[in-house]
Amino acid sequence: MRWKQVFIMLVLCLTLGLCSIQTEAGAASKYKIKINKLKNTVTVYEKSGGSYEPYKAFVCSVGHATPVGSFRIYQKHRWRALVQSTYGQYCSRFVGSILFHSVCYHRADPASLFNEEFNKLGTTASHGCIRLTVQDAKWIYDNCPMGTPVIVYKSKKAGPLGKPDTIKLPKGIGYDPTDRWSAGNPYNKKKPKITGAKNKTISYGDTTYDVKKGVRARNTTGFLATKQIKVSIRYRKAAGDPYKKVKKVNTSKPGQYRITYQLEDPIGRKAKVTVTHRVLEKPGQQKGPSENGSDPADQPGKYLPPVPTPPVDTPVSEKMVQS
Predict the structure, then answer these.
(1) Residue 28 has what pLDDT?
(2) Are strands 130-132 and 98-102 parallel, antiparallel or unpaired?
């Protein structure tokens, strides 16, 4: 009986010690994590003064078995074996067998990602754990110590920072495009591309003009992203004038329009291209000296109409007057 009492006392001491460590770590953590089970969204709150303020949001995949309630992070693993002979990176356990971790891999190898499972991010797809991109799982792993509060709840509203967009991968096995810590990741050398943006001369009053005509874009993983292009426009009347921001290219307003096409994909990679579109003067409208600062006669090759000869007064002879 005595050894049983000793064993119980040891268990109690270890349990109380673990609780004490978690409480101290929780007090030291400046972050709190909330998981919206209905919207598959994680919101991280940062302690500012005496309250927590929304800091950043992650898209995730929860499972039907994900428990609702208040918990604390109490264990971490760089790589961890998961269900059905799969593995996850940057694991942070907060209750039972439920962890934050990357999307699952065939083996403990960053080149063995299940691409189809990655493409499910943002939907309910896990066995209960919180699946994240490598970038987001690593952020929690690195920045949220033991004892960090974790709250799982249900709401139809994603959270104060909304639900981030996701990026898709081609079918098969590969790398997480956010895993920039893996040297062999081919996505480390890739970024979005914008094509078809060119300098153009636009006829005055052209009603068919479209600032995005012929412009295309693809994101870091190669998927079409033309609809995500953002356009900014600046205008000046003539060379030497300062550019001013405008809402659109007005083909009835001659001058130079500097067009900037920009794209930022869901993993934060960016592309930017700037071109100039010049709207011509109205046909038949000729600039005078006051408009361009020079006399047309000074322009070589410029045709000038002949100047009429003024009439000459012929003296009338005295004889003609007398007659």
Answers:
(1) 66
(2) parallel
